[in-house]
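Q: Predict the bound structure with magnesium ion.
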Amino acid sequence: MAIYVTGHSNPDTDSVTAAIAYAELLKAGGEEAIPTMQGEMNPETITVLDRFGFSPLEIMTDATGKTIALVDHSDLNQAPDNLSADSVVAIVDHHKIGDVTTNNPIFCCTKPVGCTGTILKQMYDAQGVAVDPKVAGLMLAAILSDTVNFKSPTCTDEDKKAVAELKEIAGVTDTEELFMDMLKAKSTVEGFSANDLLNRDYKDFDMNGNKVGCGQLELATLDQVADIRDDLYNAMKEQKAAGGHHTILLMLTDVMKEGTQLVVLSDDDSVVEGAFDSKLDGNSMWIPGMMSRKKQTVPNMQKAFGC
Ligand code: MG
Ligand code: MG
Ligand code: MG
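A: Predicted complex:
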């Protein structure tokens, strides 16, 4: 029975490329594996697949009757619909353990590193499987993306080692050029609605019974969104009204200045101000050094909610 490999909903570059890389590794081990994604690719991922010669993946949003391997997540609310405890056969991830459960023992590899691509590179090595040069390019791009070119606090020495090895395999001499090419694509705002931009890299979380949403836009400069700040805030309002959130955050992350303008829409601003020990100026606050939703924004919010 074919294993459908999928990353999280609102797929990012790691989710899509990890699905490809893990499917290839499963195939090398004699399994039948199909890399999939749960929705359309973001502009960065389109650029990456195009650059290394891959076509978009099949979109798979319903796990009914399927055998599933999850990459880059283990949260039910980010997984395909109708995921049963019988359907998941593997998890490869670098986030906190989520709430997916299984009826049987499964292969599960999670590590506190910057990217699923790094774990997959280590799995290829452990199994003695050579990484295809084009797949190596994808994994390399994913690590640069997830670690924000090594600047994210999630980045580890293991990620740097994987990049050094993957760039050789992929024949990529200049990772700075690759990263800037990806940043240019990922920070494109022209032609996208405010709702598209809010949801480009967006996740919902349950924090002690409070629904908290957090989107992130990685930008080369905050000037890129200066003209659409009101539109983005209105999109947050619509999303909050429709979703019944306690709080919606939008991280406008300036990758070059290494900080985030955090836009806040909350039933209780003081919770968010307390979480980041900062005061709102209008509907946002500048938080120096904030790059990572997973390692900085979400844990601080969870603490503020007493999780
Ligand atoms: Mg991801
Ligand atoms: Mg990832
Ligand atoms: Mg990400």
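A: The chain has two domains: 3-183, 194-304.
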